[in-house]
Task: structure prediction
Amino acid sequence: MGWGITDNIFILRQIIEKAYEYNINLHVLFVDFKQACDSIQRIKIYAILQQTEMPAKFVRLIEITMKQSEGRTIHEHNLSEKFSVFK
Result:
């Protein structure tokens, strides 16, 4: 806890640099669940992803992430209990 967006960006840049340095393929996925999942049907997302050249393994990982996600909230430095995020 206590990490901000600046810390996350720094870590991501380090990972990208190391992947480039060691010639490792790197795939990064950013999902704004509020924007992406509250406004469209998830079934359609999976169907569209399957029609692209994206490997089936990545489509499945995205599907699992969206179906089996858990969340917590922080309010006045108090962390809530876990809750399921699904639609």
